[in-house]
Amino acid sequence: MEEVYAFGANPLDRASERRGDAAWVAALLDHPDSRIALLSELKPRVRPGSPAPVIDWQPVAPWRDHIAAGATCVLLGLVDGRARFALDATAVPLGADGAELGDMRALAGIMEAGAAAILGEARAIIDWHARHRFCAACGTSTTVHSAGWSRRCPSCKAQHFPRTDPVVIMLPVRGERCLLGRNARRAGARFSCLAGFVEPGETLEAAVRREVLEESGLRVGRVTYVASQPWPFPSSLMCGFIAEAISDDLKIDHAELATARWFSRAEVLAMAARSAAGEDAPDTLAPPIAIGHHLARRWASGEF
User: Is the dihedral of CA 291, 296, 299, 304 positive or negative?
Assistant: First the structure.
């Protein structure tokens, strides 16, 4: 089995084939075993747990008025036949009952993997609804369908579905060295893999070659797929690759990268260890919740 990264271990049965059955979804909302996760401004409501916070699963009944009033509610899936929903509770004050709102990136590094993946799904789909309340074709306000997995325009009848944006993230390698860079838009000492969005009409492999050339000036030959990772900030799918560079000279695009340089395997392993330990060192790798961390670490360990 491939390694599973943060947000990629979702245990829910999405039951996608039944989302269009309105009576079935209504029965799930009425069922006493169903539970709902709350998000406020895309921050999930969690409770302290040992050794890490846990999702603050709530009975659905106390939240029916908010759902009826139009708060976004989405069927996330089933676990052992019991429904799990997510609700945008941004307009609801957080009660003093021991629960708190957590930062999704921070939670992903400490929560149980399946719980973090569920919250990642919830964050992505609720954020999509917030961004797509109006029809892209005619501008009319849309309505929610399929248990929260589509929106429809009552005017022009267009259907709109949640989008996932493919992103290539790649580690250029040449011999016993790899190239890592620092993002120009994020201050700090962390190095990571190069990355960029896939353009319309472009294969993943072509996107890898284009992005590496644009950002670093390197030309790439063989491109090898490694793994993928859902990344709900807001709704990307990170597609990880090893890219074999066929040139050495760097020509950095400083609009994209603050800097970039070659690293040995030993240097990458030391950076990965510092990152995993949470050390604030001059040079660190992207945190372990990011697939870029694992691409570099696994290459440095000799897996590729």
Answer: positive
Residue 242 near residue 226, CB atoms below 8 Å: yes
pLDDT tens digits along 97-121? 888 999 999 999 999 999 999 999 9
Q: What is the 3-state secondary structure (H, E, C) of 56-72?
A: CCEECHHHHHHHHCCCC
* Alpha-carbon gap, residue 32 to 30, rounded angstroms: 6
What is the number of H-type helices and E-type strands within the chain? 7, 18
Condensed to tens digits (0 to 9), the pLDDT of residues 30-42 reads 999 999 999 999 9
How far apart are the C-alpha atoms of 156 and 138, rounded to whole Å? 7
How far is it, in rounded angstroms, from Cα 265 to Cα 207?
A: 25
> Is 4 buried (19+), middle (13-18) or exposed (0-12) by CB count in 10 A?
middle
For the stretch 73-82, pLDDT in tens is 999 999 999 9
**46 vs 49: CA distance, rounded Å:** 9
Q: Are 154 and 192 contacting, i.e. CB atoms less than 8 angstroms apart?
A: no
Please state the rounded mean pLDDT for residues 142-153: 97
pTM above 0.90, yes or no: yes
For 93, residues 6+ apart whose C-beta sits below 8 A from its C-beta are: none
* Torsion sign over Cα 253, 257, 261, 264: negative
Separation of alpha carbons 104 and 123, rounded Å: 9
